[in-house]
Hints:
The chain is an all-beta fold. 0% of the residues lie in helices and 50% in strands.
Amino acid sequence: VQLVESGGGSVQAGGSLRLSCAASGYTFSSHSMGWFRQAPGKEREWVTSIAADGRTSYADSVKGRFTISRDNAKNTLYLQMNSLKPEDTAMYYCAKAKSPWFGLIYQPANFGDWGQGTQVTVSS
């Protein structure tokens, strides 16, 4: 299993970024996926998840600003981030559910594989 994030960068508050996570080594379409983030000195935080059937769930802190999506033909997970705030600054990680057809999940223990992360920095 390999998960490779890209698309991070530095933006000003109010700006947008789109993160991508290229997946390989397993049946992408059958697995729930998620995005997590971790800021310096803070614990890893769940951001959003998408189930194999396309259902989504979001943390309250990003609801209405972030959108998770998946392209099963390209084995790629996306995170569209709009109206970014300085508090969104963190390393962002994509993660794969431990087993297929898990449904919507958000607890780190239910994810079995993680990418290396991509840094997002939002300046005020």
